[in-house]
Amino acid sequence: MKTIRTRIAPSPTGMMHLGTARTAIYCWAVARHFGGKFLLRIEDTDQERSTQEAVQVILDSMKWLNLDYDEGPVYQMDRLERYREIVDEMLKDGRAYYCYATPDELNAMREEQKRLGLKPRYDGRWRPEVAKDKPIPEGVKPVIRFRNPDDGAVTWNDAVYGSITVSNTELDDLIIMRNGIPTYNFAVVVDDMDMEVSHVVRGADHINNTPRQINIYRALGAEVPVFAHLPLINGPDGQKLSKRHGTVSVMEYERQGYLPEAVFNYLARLGWGHGNMEKFTRDELAEVFELGGCSKAAARIDWKKFDWLNQQYMKEADGARLAQLTRERIEARGGKVEGGPDLAVVCDMLKNRAATLEKLADSALFFYKYEPKSADDIAAALADGGREALALFAQKFAELEEPLTGEAVYGVIQAVMAEQEIPMKVLANPLRVVVCAADRTPQIDQTLCLIGKDAVLARIESAL
Ligand code: GLU
What we know:
The protein is an alpha/beta fold. Helix content is 45%, strand content 12%. The chain is built from 19 helices and 13 strands. The protein has helices spanning 18-33, 52-64, 80-92, 103-115, 184-194, 210-219, 250-255, 260-269, 282-288, 303-316, 319-332, 343-350, 357-364, 375-382, 386-398, 406-420, 424-436, 444-451, 453-463; strands spanning 5-8, 37-42, 71-75, 96-99, 143-146, 153-158, 162-167, 175-178, 181-182, 199-203, 226-230, 233-234, 299-300. Strand 10, helix 6 (210-219) and strand 11 (226-230) form a beta-alpha-beta unit. Helix 1 crosses helix 9, helix 11 (319-332) packs across helix 12 and helix 11 packs across helix 13. The longest helix is centred in the N-terminal third of the chain and has 16 residues, at 18-33. The protein is elongated, with a radius of gyration of 32 Å. The termini are far apart. The model has no long low-confidence stretch (mean pLDDT 96).
């Protein structure tokens, strides 16, 4: 069997969109499923819109999602010579030709076609046989057009949409090179041919380009790959996903504290299914992934499900890993992690209730940044028996031996409650307000152990 080779070919003109990431995941999964190769190509021929930062965003996004590619990145701008070489061959035998039509002329042509009720299309006025005796106008920089077949039709069996046929009468002679730079439809074919791509998986917005590209493959005598077009991702309201629906940039998810495996899983499941598989690893996806499992209908994003999935991965994540991912976020909030309680232990305690790393950082912050509550808050917490409970607690707590244990601290809390005949909250509330200066804490005995004996006593003393 032929080696399966897939590629993701983003244009570096901005962020990496969730849709591109999902395409990349599917390309990766096809390659891994068949033991093939997955390639990265940067389509940077749009010199006005391509930027180095956007290239970096693509590389970072691929890395963050752990989409390991076997070859590349290949940059189209490094391959200009190759495109020219092919164009030169095509020019020699009329598969391509120079077109000297000016923009004004082409506009007039389209207006006239519209007036006659025709579909606007290039009329072939510079095809060699038509323009044989035409003088070459001065001062016009020609473009190079592909000579599309006049008759017949192009048919391909799309791995997602099934058989699609487009008549050649629907297509015109498209521009393949301008000022020495190939256009998308041409470069993509030369690259996929040279890179021996066997499966072109991409967004359904490219379906219209596919028959044109197939004609170019044929003109080059190259084997036509399998095409699989993926329906777009829509927002929760069924409209095309855009910024107004929420975050659409992959790296923005990293900033917001999502785990890459959750984003990977959510995107993979969005528009593809296998039985009742909802939560799966990369390897599990690679094992069962088939393009035939992709839906033909546009996927609808569901942010709640996205968050839910992230929460599941947060719960499962190891405390040490979460600590690594949360540390900078705590420091950015002014927390001092160095010398504070073991962040891995703190993350383990808090992860079940934090939907994202950002939320985890919020809830862990009080361990690393003590900012006493206002005098009013403290006074309120000390009212109604709080002061006495806290004082007795401090007395007994001071006698505990270090290292503190949760059971020992719990014993002190119980003793105070029994002696003063008070419910838990009369003591727990001042402990939270005064010692933790937090509205919510994990189990108070564990929390106090982590804050440490000296700090707990010093904070109580300064409040009483
Ligand atoms: N550069 C194109 C895009 O980002 C690639 C399309 C393709 O995969 O052929 O949409």
